Amino acid sequence: MKKHNFYAGPSILPQYTIENTAKALIDFAGMGLSLMEVSHRSKQFIAVVEEAQSLFKELLNIPEGYSVIFLGGGASLQFSMIPFNLLAKKAAYLNTGEWARKSIKEAKGFGEVVVVASSEDKNFNYIPRGFEIPTDADYFHITTNNTIFGTEILHQIESPIPLVADMSSDIFSRVIDVSKYALIYGGAQKNLAPAGVTFVIIKNDILGKVDRKIPTMLNYKTHIEKESMFNTPPVVPIYAALQTLKWLKNMGGIAEMEKINIRKADLLYNEIDRNPLFRATVPAKEDRSRMNVCFVMTEAFVQYEKEFDAFASSRGMVGLQGHRDVGGFRASIYNALPYESVEALVSVMQEFENMKK
Ligand SMILES: *Cc1c(COP(=O)(O)O)cnc(C)c1O
Predict the structure, then answer these.
(1) Quick check: is 205 in a domain?
(2) CA of residue 254 to ligand 1 center, whole Å
(3) Residue 56 lies in a domain
(4) Distance from the alpha carbon of residue 76 to the mean position of ligand 1, in angstroms
(5) Residue 77: which H helix or E strand, with range?
(6) Is the minimum distance from the CB of 75 to ligand 1 under 6 angstroms?
(7) Which among 18, 62, 92, 116 is most buried, taking Cβ atoms within 10 Å?
(8) Are residues 245 and 258 in the same domain?
């Protein structure tokens, strides 16, 4: 039976990425060796890193003056690397969920942290608006897509100070204006590659403004100067990321991807709003994530939650269980998830409705 993969992360990747990476694990670049057993300094692998960097720049239209680096440690290491490198006195944060909260906690070890607004009062089911960003802070940190709670900042935040964004779970899903950001980062395992590589897009001139001594491995300058080759980078995930970038380009780029993502999200949210058995956990349509669709069963049907989960599983749906902080269901509908998988989920919801009404 065909599987429909709704896991939140690690999550679905394009078949193109999986097949090409599998081939390279046997024979990389015609070298007669596995990708796992060749030097990261071989000219064949250096070409992979360079092509991945240049496709990042091309697909996201990254302006001059920015670097793209590939690191280890996950997005979580960036929670401390960012303040280590950028926080001289004070930083501002927007608290929109669990990942934002973790980034705030880490920053507090480096200086004063101002939380400009929070949606914690309503279990993070909305995006705060109308807050003021302090102009005397060193940077303002946001989490554009809140993977756990299913909200997304889809409007451009205009920041008077350098804007830093965790885009782990919505990078490459919609057109963004990179020039509005000083730093964009994310773990790869939501929309790009298997776990193990973290991308950082960084405006070079924001560095060098803190006095503290930064350990070599935690200093962005090290990795920019050595072009992500200061130490051994995560070779296999970087190769897989390159395949996903090529796939994105073949699909017509980010603008095309965004159109498909809007169609997928609309299809699913429309069904949740129509179907009397289900309710979206994020009430405001403009705050709903196009990547992670969170929903629960309405009061009258809540006793059928486990049954629905089993019914969906019997139809090949995988990874639909909601995060423990939200409950219910979460359908992660990342770039690589086909439109047909969303259609299949909608059919399952309608069939279940007919069984129960
Ligand atoms: C998954 C996720 C993280 C954590 O990523 P790791 O690579 O596991 O550290 C951070 N932020 C967001 C928005 C995420 O979705």
Answers:
(1) yes
(2) 21
(3) yes
(4) 6
(5) helix 74-86
(6) yes
(7) 92
(8) no
Are residues 244 and 311 both part of a single domain? no
From residue 164, alpha-carbon distances to 81, 167, 231, 315 in Å are 12, 10, 25, 41
CB 240 within 8 A of CB 257: no
Residue among 168, 189, 291 to mutate when testing ligand 1 (max atoms within 8 A of CB): 168
| Residues 246-296: tens digit of each pLDDT | 999 999 999 999 999 999 999 999 999 999 999 999 999 999 999 999 999
* Same domain for 276 and 177: no
**CATH number assigned to the domain comprising residue 300:** 3.90.1150.10
Pocket flag, ligand 1, residue 99 (CB < 6 Å): yes
- Name the pairing type of β-strands 151-152 and 329-332: unpaired
What would you report as the CA-atom Rg of the chain, rounded to the nearest whole angstrom? 21
Q: What is the mean pLDDT of each run of 10 residues along the chain (357 residues)?
A: 95 98 98 97 98 98 98 98 98 98 98 98 97 98 98 98 98 98 98 97 97 97 96 98 98 98 98 98 98 97 97 97 94 98 98 95
CATH at 40: 3.40.640.10
pTM of the model: 0.98
**pLDDT single digits (tens) 101-152:** 999 999 999 999 999 999 999 999 999 999 999 999 999 999 999 999 999 9
Q: Which pLDDT score is estimated for 2?
A: 87
Of 272, 282, 193, nearest to 238 by C-alpha is 193
Nearest CA to ligand 1 atom 12: 168
Residues 209 and 262 in one domain: no
| Residue positions annotated with a catalytic role | 99, 166, 190
Domains identified in the chain, total number: 2
Nearest CA to ligand 1 atom 3: 75
Distance between CA atoms of residues 137 and 205, nearest Å: 16
Q: How far is the CA of 274 from the centre of ligand 1 (A)?
A: 32
User: Which atom of ligand 1 lies closest to the CA of 77?
Assistant: 9
The answer to the question of residue 191 being in a domain is yes
Last residue of a domain, one of 250, 273, 299: 250
CA distance 146 to 328: 16
Domain boundaries, position 339? 254-356
The reply to whether 206 and 62 lie within a common domain is: yes
Q: Which atom of ligand 1 is nearest to 198's Cα?
A: 7
pLDDT for the residue 357: 83
> 203 in helix, strand or coil?
strand
Q: Which pLDDT value is given to residue 167?
A: 98
CB of 80 shorter than 6 A to ligand 1: no
Do 239 and 295 reside in the same domain of the chain?
A: no
Separation of 36 CA from ligand 1 center, angstroms?
Answer: 25
